[in-house]
Specification:
The chain is α/β, with parallel strands linked by helices and about 425 residues long. The protein is built from 17 helices and twelve strands. The strands form three sheets. Strands 4-11-10-9-8-7-6-5 form an eight-stranded parallel sheet. Strands 1-12 form a two-stranded antiparallel sheet. It has a two-stranded antiparallel sheet with strand order 2-3.
Length: about 425
């Protein structure tokens, strides 16, 4: 029998307090608000299904918070520890989507559209998980994606992440709005990292930023194109309002709003070293938001590989190839760009088709398991990027936590390869998955 509306809302409130909610890709406070105001009949119906299926008592038996990174069984074990450690405004910045955050949930749900087709009696005693891209090799196809303001989650910030990427031999991409410079990050990584680029309204500044990354040793830049129309980050603003700290040491005026700048502004980029220190040249102001002409100009300004981050359609993928782009990230900014409610894993096949296999394609958005990574590679991705999971590890235990997240996801991926009867990334193909 279905629960009455009041009981259903009580059950949603119970779910909102569970760290297991992270497995669905949903934020606790967002669901708590739904439970309070009854905005989602679909979620109320889901509560009926879960409760009547007899799983309510299982959810009630929540495990205690892990005390050390080595105790984690999956990446979700880090989330409640990180949430306990990270200030509420910073947590809102990390977990926000746009509007009602529905695209975050869609990214996770997208993986359920595909199931695995395990194979048997194949020798998988030796498996090669190495990723080869632009002449460099890494131990895993799991990319440490750009995510800004990491000192807002742990005092060591991007340095801890870079050291973890070095220890586990993963490709790392640094955000423009990182709280560590490109130079210091490359030093901590002990090797090159890619640089994610937010364009500036003044081309003379953008060009200097690109040249700086090139001088530092970055072999590639990923120009983010999914935020050119802006985004409506309700959860971030709502959580910032709950933070009563006076953060004048980090934020102009005091209110803690991490990661919202992205523009060169010497008044309030004290914690954004990649946005400061540029020569005052005659301005070359952009006319409107960037178009393909900007991409052409960017390509001409550097010898680095130029990738676009935020491509989700076949048409744009084909145009990228026409304009000589070196690679793509299939991305909706972790559900914080547009509220399309379309999973990146769903967009991936058409983007791969649009490239005609001519350039590498990295997919990000909602990746939490090694099986997710395997499905992306089966659908044609070169690699898969992660964001929030390694920040959960960072916020929980610093470098050790990031290393543990990378190790867990890589182990899951390797096990999936073995169960699927493949011994190298090049063998992973559509035949290893099927529509659900």
């Amino acid at each position: 029998m279905a629960l009455d509306p009041n009981s259903r809302r009580q059950f949603l409130a119970f779910l909102a307090g569970s760290p297991l909610l992270a497995a669905a890709g949903l934020d606790h406070d967002w669901l708590a608000r739904l439970a309070g105001n009854g905005r989602s009949d679909a979620l109320l119906h889901a509560a009926d299904q879960v409760a009547t299926a007899g799983t309510h008592p299982v959810l009630a038996a929540q495990p205690p918070l892990i005390a050390r990174a080595a105790d984690a069984l999956d990446v979700f074990d880090f989330e409640p520890v990180a949430r306990q450690n990270i200030p509420v405004a910073h947590w809102g910045y990390l977990m926000t989507g746009t509007d009602d955050d529905a695209t975050i949930a869609a990214n996770r749900a997208g993986f359920d559209r595909w199931v695995l087709r395990p194979r048997r009696l194949i020798d998988v005693s030796k498996v090669d998980t190495q990723l080869s891209i632009f002449g460099s090799r890494y131990a895993s196809p799991i990319v440490v994606n750009p995510l800004g303001s990491q000192k807002g989650f742990h005092k060591d910030g991007e340095v801890a992440t870079a050291k973890a990427a070095k220890a586990r031999d993963h490709l790392m991409v640094l955000s423009t709005v990182a709280t560590t410079s490109i130079e210091d990050t490359i030093a901590a990584r002990g090797g090159p990292v890619w640089f994610q680029l937010y364009h500036q309204s003044d081309w003379s500044i953008t060009k200097q930023m690109v040249k700086r990354a090139e001088r530092a040793g970055a072999p590639a830049i990923a120009f983010t194109v999914d935020l050119l129309g802006g985004s409506n980050r309700v959860t971030m603003v709502r959580e910032a309002r709950r933070d009563t700290r006076d953060c004048i040491k980090c934020h102009l005026g005091g209110p803690p709003l991490p990661g919202v700048s992205g523009r060169v502004d010497d008044r309030d980029n004290r914690r954004k070293p990649n946005l400061v220190g540029y020569e005052k040249l005659p301005p070359q102001l952009e006319k409107g938001t960037p178009t393909w002409e900007f991409v052409d100009r960017l390509k001409q300004s550097t010898g680095m590989k130029v990738l676009l981050k935020g491509i989700v359609t076949e048409e744009d993928a084909a145009l990228a190839v026409e304009h000589g782009v070196d690679g793509l990230f299939v991305s909706n900014h972790g559900g914080r760009a547009e509220n399309s409610r379309r999973a990146t894993i769903v967009s991936l096949p058409e983007v791969v088709k649009g490239t005609a296999g001519k350039i590498p394609v990295i997919c990000d958005g909602g990746f939490r398991r090694g099986t997710d990574v395997f499905k992306a590679l089966a659908l044609g991705a070169t690699a898969a990027g992660i964001g929030r999971p390694y920040i959960w590890g960072l916020g929980a235990f610093g470098q050790e936590g990031v290393e543990a997240v990378l190790a867990i996801m890589h182990k899951e991926f390797e096990l999936t390869m073995k169960q699927s009867g493949v011994t190298a990334l090049s063998q992973i193909a559509m035949r290893h998955i099927a529509p659900a």
